[in-house]
Amino acid sequence: MKKVLVTGGAGYIGSHVVKQLGEKGYEILVIDNLSTGHKEAVLYGELQVVDLEEKDKVQKLVRDFQPDAVMHFAASIEVEESVRKPLKYYKNNTSNTINLLQILDEENINYFIFSSTAAVYGEPEKLPVKEDFPLNPINPYGQSKAFVEKILQDFNNAKKDFRYISLRYFNVAGADEKGRIGQSYKNPTHLITRALKTAKGEYEKLYIFGTDYPTPDGSCIRDFIHVDDLADAHIVALEYLFNGGESDIFNLGYGHGYSVKEVVNMAKKVTGIDFPVEEAPRRAGDPAVLIADNTKIRQKLGWKPKYDDLEYIIKTAWNWELNKRY
Ligand code: UFG
Fold first, then answer.
1. Which fold has domain 3-173+224-252?
2. pLDDT tens digit string along 100-140?
3. What are the NAD-dependent epimerase/dehydratase domain coordinates in residue numbering (predicted)?
4. Nearest in space to 150 (alpha carbons), one of 89, 101, 207
């Protein structure tokens, strides 16, 4: 069976991909610095705690493991924090990815799956967003990933046997249906998690950041995708490369969105709790609307989502929130 190195595999998205890789029988090595990840989240394979900044240590692990492919999730992910601490994002997301690519180059590992983001598009001129739209990130988080996409393209031009897939995630949410893994950050900023933690009483109220956007109800609109549909797309992309597929870039979303207010109402319905909500000013770095055109990944990779249902997404997240293991 093929071997896959997963960076950030103890994190929220990485751990769901590790779960699916494990269920399919792949041999897995996870490397994670556990800055936001949890060892309990790694359901399959071996975990080595190391930071991508420590290039020599990572390189030794890679040399010993001899992976067929690398899936790269390790990153900092908060838009608002990236505006305040841009260097953290360029270091963790851009510079550490260069370290990893140098290792791939030196160890001759030719298959790479990259976690990119819808934030590379910034405030798109048209919707839904297609992969060939211009990249105009409006925050350092999006820029840190857009830089990597450019680096990957140039690296691939120089190294003809290298093959990569860049997946541009829209808003990932939800948790494992069996409640084994889910999102667990110290200070979560994501809308659904904040709403559910407010329902649980961990926060006094939920703020709706911005009600003066040019949208029907004035709040931002996002394309929420269940983490297990997103994880499945990674396996599909990996197998596409193993079967001779060419390097490519795909959006990962459902192709329709919900407003922040609609999400809040669904969170109240699922939890049965009418938690306090307050309208607040806009948050820095937020585009008004982000919706994916997912035609390309459906047609080219044959990816078919199974959980396109906001209620299901929030139910699995709520189940996790109530029964968290870590
Ligand atoms: N929001 C609130 N209150 C909160 C939290 C969020 O109103 O307490 C709003 C935000 O202002 C935004 C929307 O809910 O309008 C979604 O915010 P999230 O923080 O949940 O997600 P983002 O859209 O900012 O970012 C996420 C990922 C990024 C990715 C982006 C692409 O974190 O990696 O989606 O859409 F790039």
1. Rossmann fold (3.40.50)
2. 999 999 999 999 999 999 999 999 999 999 999 999 999 99
3. 4-253
4. 101
Confidence (pTM): 0.98
Phi, psi (rounded to 5 degrees) for 31: -120, 135
Give the start-to-end residue ranges of the domains of the chain.
3-173+224-252, 191-222+255-322
Which atom of ligand 1 is nearest the CA belonging to 285? 24
Best CA proximity match to 195, nearest among 179, 231, 168, 171: 171
Q: Give the nearest ligand 1 atom to 290 CA.
A: 35
In whole angstroms, what separates CA 25 from the centre of its chain? 23
Category of 234 on φ-ψ map: left (φ > 0), alpha (ψ -120 to 50) or beta: alpha
Tell me the CATH number of domain 191-222+255-322, given options 3.90.25.10, 3.30.450.20, 1.10.10.10, 3.30.200.20. Answer: 3.90.25.10
pLDDT digits (tens, 9 = 90+) for 60-99: 999 999 999 999 999 999 988 999 999 999 999 999 999 9
- How does DSSP classify residue 283? P
Report how far residue 79's alpha carbon sits from residue 123's, in angstroms, rounded to the nearest whole number.
14
Annotation marks residue 169 as catalytic: no
- Spacing, Cα 246 to ligand 1 middle (Å): 32
252 CB within 6 A, ligand 1 = no
The ipTM value here is 0.95
208 in contact with ligand 1, CB cutoff 6 A: yes
